[in-house]
TrEMBL record:
InterPro entries: CoA-transferase_III_domain (IPR050483), CoA-Trfase_fam_III (IPR003673), CoA-Trfase_III_dom3_sf (IPR044855), CoA-Trfase_III_dom_1_sf (IPR023606). This is CaiB/BaiF CoA-transferase family protein. Transmembrane segments: none annotated. It comes from Novosphingobium aquae. The lineage of its organism: Bacteria, Pseudomonadati, Pseudomonadota, Alphaproteobacteria, Sphingomonadales. Pfam families: CoA_transf_3. Keywords: Transferase. Gene3D superfamilies: Crotonobetainyl-coa:carnitine coa-transferase, domain 1, formyl-coa transferase, domain 3.
Length: 406
């Protein structure tokens, strides 16, 4: 492990001392490096001259800063290097020699052509953990094809399943095709970091976003193999659990999710149909699945006569798993979110105080250093070159004059 360039005055997190060189852009890669930054790693984001990460130009933009970039780059540093400039490759290799982890999400082969592939960097840093994130992985007939979130959803089966019965497939509201990179990538990296404590050696990690999204489909592949047929879209309902889904209220909608026999009895009492709990036609999960229309009609008949607030009160009292359907702002401002500090305010160099989503992982016995604002383009270039690579002012000035750094 390396020492942080700027020691924290408070606990940085469990990955304090781990340094990450981040060649990622847009969402899949930045989500992975964000997870490591949240855990306390020092993340050095390498951006190209000009506009930097593509998402810095994604509207809406306020005072030159994009909402998109702000959303997935908290806690990182930014250095601008022209990797195609004569000295740019050398600077990148010098940085890689001093880092524990490298993450990139270019198409397979791009980093090799730049001279920054795993084999080249392993020669100068045998302990480097190199995580390559791509749409389809580093092998296979589709490895060179471009991939974006909706494409990945289509290739993984997720888009097919996200529809009402008989309806047109719809893209998931969350960009899970990309965000899965922020799950699979960090898991692979953390495993390799642990392995390195025993072997001293790094490793190349090949992350396929499509395979990651297939992995998140949970029980659906096994359901297909068990039944011999493709699972069919169920909308907000569950293929095997009833009642489970969105039900109408007099002023909106509410979610009810009945997973066990115990909850089934609670649902029956809550909808003022206690006799259904003892009805032999609905005694098992399979029977309730087969009686989906009758049961859903009974639940809807009750919920449609009451407001969401009334239903929340009643279902809470009778321990029925449920939830009102919150908008994004309602979720951020809910009492639970406020109690947990889901939203934090940080000071941004250009925007001043701004709200950000807080780290999703907390440590009960330790308070982590506050989240820092996403960096402005090249904000840390001089400090990284001076503090980490030991370059003096004249050398930095010459690199800037040549257009190698900015």
């Amino acid at each position: 492990m390396t020492e942080p360039s700027t020691p924290a005055t408070t606990w940085a997190g469990p990955l304090a001392g781990v340094r990450v060189l981040d060649f990622t852009r847009v969402l899949a890669g930045p989500a992975a490096s964000l997870a490591l930054a949240d855990l306390g790693a020092e993340v050095i984001k390498v951006e190209p001259p000009g506009s930097g990460d593509d998402t810095r130009t994604f509207p809406p933009i306020r005072d030159g800063e994009s909402h998109y970039f702000l959303s997935v780059n908290r806690g990182k540093k930014s250095i601008v290097i022209d990797l195609k400039a004569p000295d740019g490759l050398g600077l990148a290799m010098d940085l890689a020699a001093k880092c524990d982890v490298l993450i990139e999400n270019y198409r397979p082969g791009v980093m090799d052509r730049l001279g920054l592939g795993y084999d080249a960097l392993k020669a100068i840093n045998p302990g480097l953990i190199y995580c390559a994130i791509s749409g389809y992985g580093m092998t296979g007939p589709m490895r060179d094809m471009p991939s974006f979130d909706i494409v990945l959803q289509a290739q993984s089966g997720a888009l097919y399943m996200n529809a009402e019965p008989g309806g047109q497939p719809m893209k998931l509201g969350l960009p899970m095709g990309d965000l899965v990179g922020g799950i699979s990538g960090p898991i692979g990296i953390l495993g390799a970091l642990f392995e390195r404590t025993r072997t001293g050696k790094g490793r190349l990690i090949d992350v396929s976003l499509t395979e990651g999204l297939i992995g998140l489909s949970a029980y659906l592949p096994q359901l297909a193999w068990f039944t011999g047929a493709d699972p069919q879209p169920q909308g907000s309902q569950h293929p095997n659990l009833v009642p489970y889904g969105v039900f109408p209220a007099s002023d909106g909608s509410i979610v009810v999710a009945c997973l066990t026999a115990g909850f089934w009895g609670n649902v029956c009492r809550a909808i003022e149909r206690p006799e259904l709990a003892d009805d032999p036609r609905f005694a098992t999960l399979s029977q309730r699945r087969d009686a989906r229309e009758e049961i859903n009609a009974a639940v809807s008949a009750f919920t449609s006569r009451h407001t969401v607030a009334e239903l929340v009160t009643r279902f809470t009292q009778l321990e029925v798993p449920h939830a009102p359907i919150l908008s994004v702002l309602e979720a951020l401002n809910s009492p639970q979110s406020k109690a947990r500090g889901v939203v934090v305010e940080v000071d941004h160099p250009a925007l001043g105080p701004i709200p950000l989503v807080n780290r999703p992982i907390r440590y009960a016995d330790e308070e982590q250093a506050p989240v820092t604002a996403p960096p402005m383009l090249g904000q840390d270039t001089d400090a990284i070159l001076a503090d980490l690579l030991g370059l003096d002012e004249d050398r930095i000035a010459a690199l800037r004059a040549a257009g190698t750094v900015a």
